[in-house]
Specification:
The complex is a heterodimer of chains A (180) and B (471).
Chain A (H helix, E strand, L loop, with lengths): L6 E8 L2 H13 L5 E4 L5 H6 L7 H27 L12 H27 L13 H6 L5 E6 L7 H9 L5 E6 L1
Antiparallel strand pairs in A: 1-3, 1-4, 2-3
Chain B lengths: L28 H13 L5 H27 L13 H26 L5 H26 L25 H34 L3 H10 L7 H34 L11 H27 L8 H31 L3 H12 L3 H18 L3 H4 L2 H27 L15 H24 L5 H7 L8 H6 L1
Classes of the chains: A alpha+beta (180), B mainly alpha (471).
């Protein structure tokens, strides 16, 4: 990967979630695509505004759960029928109803681990460094009480001076340039 | 019959919207963040914390001594023998894991039901779950007598080519409890990541910045991340709900699948699950009431929380009462001589006092008083009730384990049970260890989920521009 340098993007700070959502919606309408919103709690409207509607976490969870259930059941059958057959009170070796409970638990275990770690992986986390952490306003407010819109330099529409003026049109508290 | 509408107290309702208020008015994003983050980030640990920590640490030391002696001498230092081979270890196992269930119920089931009030108490209830499961897991392990061979319970390819027996409920238990512990930790940690990021950004000292920085895995609050996070939380809640119901069901199978009178009943799974939630909510109250007082969190954990928790206890208490009633009914209706004797012996045998303690603590005291909102919002009373129910639920497990075992089919094999000082030391030790872990948690991790509380504030509502200008 080539070394990234220069500007990462322009970061506008807003006081209320409403202001952020309106700005993000307008930017999206104006053709911006490489952008993101940053909020101290989940703001569904902001995700809608930047065109992020669905994610792959449910699919990952489903696959994990099915694999977990299948793995546990297969293991039980292999152990009880082939590897170590035991006569327990005259029950058949393939006594599948008794195998359901561990298979059920492993379905949940694998699905839960897939949901949690799948979510982190899809988010690209852990990522201890991010250019936005260079902005003092971001460090102070993004995880407490401020709402941010970032228009990224990778977007073809990006031009430092013009974009700065464009963002100022939304009347944010501040607009800062963020470097890599 | 005339009914009258019960009006909620005035300060519970938001006059602007007419909606129920969960937390006290006048809070902002920053004020609640400061309030919760300060508890963790302050360099000045309150003296009271050290005092409690010393006491709890003493308790944890008692546990260490008891377990060390157990490893040196063997399980003979406990009162377990024939016919009562399960004793305190299994009573405490079931009691502790039941306590854990309320944490999962609050964080998972109430999330699915969109109960906003759960947000204030969910985090420390989840922490309670994890520490309770730790205490619970310890008991079957040390009860095996040779805990260093515990790995035999896992399906691993050993050189001796022996495999576990999957038709046994005890084996199901291994899977249920280990899954429960893992999922609880994951759910708790994932829920904490955004708050750890807040602490990272608010921390002043370098060490705290590194510590919370590493734990928060670089969370930056991108709405894309938030949406995946919300999906994952919802899915975890959806998975934890059947899980929590299955765990105590499987534990009840440990008893119900056996042919012993007093254990071999079909009412056990629902009655165990309800009892677990009953005792768990009692423990949440036992922890929440001193905690809100000590850290001045009355604005976040309000009397409405007490009221709601009281209602949940009332409902689960009645399910438990139904369980007791059904046991008594089936003892008669089954026309089974042994079943009838087991019940008679429970209530009127030499250990009948334990049965009547359980009836008093689980049914008589809570189920007559929790109807009154005045009492449900009376903080000292709720603390009292929480202790009563915790005691009652411990006796319930005592009754199930001991009174079913000590007089079974053959009168010549009857015995009795009297716990030794090491039984008590181990139990008290786990109480100390639990408190010890919980104190470390409130000192170093955010005990109330800040990101979820923010969503409850009026400022989090997105209004059209015109309405905002009017404010």
């Amino acid at each position: 990967m080539p070394a990234r340098e220069g500007t990462y993007g322009l970061l506008a700070e807003f006081e209320t979630p409403g202001d952020l959502v309106r700005a993000a919606r307008k930017a999206r309408e104006d053709g911006w695509r490489r952008m993101d919103c940053y909020t101290p709690y989940p703001v569904e409207e902001a995700a809608e505004a930047i065109g992020f509607h669905r994610n792959k976490v449910p699919l990952v969870t489903l696959i994990g759960g099915l694999m977990g259930g299948a793995a546990a059941f297969a293991l039980e059958v292999w152990v009880s029928v082939l590897a170590y057959p035991l006569n327990i009170a005259g029950r058949p070796l393939y006594s599948w109803p008794a195998f359901i409970v561990p298979a059920y638990e492993w379905t949940i275990l694998w699905a839960g681990l897939s949901a949690a770690f799948g979510m982190l992986a899809l988010n690209g986390l852990p990522a201890l460094y991010h250019p936005l952490f260079n902005a003092p306003s971001f460090r102070d407010g993004a995880t407490t009480d401020k709402f941010f819109l970032c228009l990224e330099a990778l977007d073809p529409k990006f031009n430092l001076a013009e974009t700065k003026a464009y963002l100022a049109g939304f009347a944010p508290t501040s607009v800062v340039e963020v470097d890599y | 019959m005339a009914t009258k509408e019960v009006k909620p107290p005035e300060h519970w309702v938001d006059p602007a919207t007419g909606e129920y208020r969960v937390i006290a008015p006048g809070q902002t994003f920053r004020s609640i963040t400061e309030k919760i983050a300060r508890i963790v980030l302050t360099p000045h640990t309150p003296m009271g914390w050290f005092g409690l920590f010393t006491v709890a640490g003493g308790g944890a030391t008692v546990l260490m001594v008891a377990v060390t002696w157990l490893f040196l001498k063997g399980v003979g230092i406990w009162a377990i023998t024939q016919p009562v081979a399960w004793g305190f270890a299994i009573i405490n196992f079931v009691w502790w894991i039941g306590i854990g269930h309320a944490g999962t119920l609050i964080s998972a089931i109430l999330l699915l039901f969109k109960q906003g009030w759960r947000n204030s108490i969910s985090r420390f209830a989840e922490a309670m779950t994890i520490f309770a499961v730790m205490c619970a897991g310890m008991f079957p392990l040390i009860h095996t007598g040779r805990p260093w061979l515990a790995y035999w319970m896992f399906p691993l390819p050993y050189t001796m080519t022996v495999w576990p027996q999957f038709r046994s409920p005890l084996m199901w238990d291994v899977f249920a409890v280990s899954t429960y512990a893992t999922i609880s930790v994951v759910f708790w940690y994932i829920g904490m990541v955004p708050d750890l990021a807040t602490l990272r950004d608010r921390a002043q000292s370098r060490i705290a910045q590194y510590f919370y920085g590493m734990l928060s895995v670089g969370w930056r609050g991108s709405v894309r991340h938030w949406m995946r996070y919300e999906t994952a939380s919802l899915l975890l809640a959806g998975l934890a709900t059947p899980l929590v119901l299955s765990v105590h069901t499987v534990i009840s199978f440990d008893f119900a699948v056996a042919v012993l009178p007093g254990w071999h009943t079909t009412i056990f799974p629902p009655y165990f699950v309800a009892g677990a939630i009953y005792s768990g909510f009692a423990m949440v109250l036992t922890l929440a009431i001193p905690l809100r007082k000590f850290y001045h969190l009355e604005a976040l954990v309000t009397d409405r929380h007490m009221d709601n928790m009281g209602k949940v206890m009332l409902v689960t208490g009645f399910i438990v009462a139904y369980g007791y009633g059904m046991e008594a009914f089936m003892a008669w209706y089954s026309a089974d001589h042994w079943e009838a004797f087991a019940f008679w012996n429970r209530a009127f045998g030499p250990m009948g006092w334990s049965y009547w303690t359980l009836i008093a603590c689980n049914l008589v005291i809570p189920l007559t008083t929790l109807w009154s909102r005045k009492l449900r919002t009376n903080i000292p009373f709720m603390f009292f009730i929480s202790i009563v129910v915790n005691t009652g639920m411990w006796f319930e497990r005592f009754v199930i384990v001991v009174t079913s075992l000590y007089r079974d089919f053959l009168p010549s094999a009857w015995g009795t049970y009297r716990a030794t000082k090491w039984d008590y030391a181990t139990f008290v030790g786990t109480l100390g260890f639990f408190t010890f872990m919980f104190l470390l948690f409130v000192r170093f991790l955010p005990m109330i989920p800040m990101n979820e509380i923010r969503m409850l504030l009026p400022a989090a509502k997105i209004k059209p521009k015109a309405a905002e200008a009017a404010d």
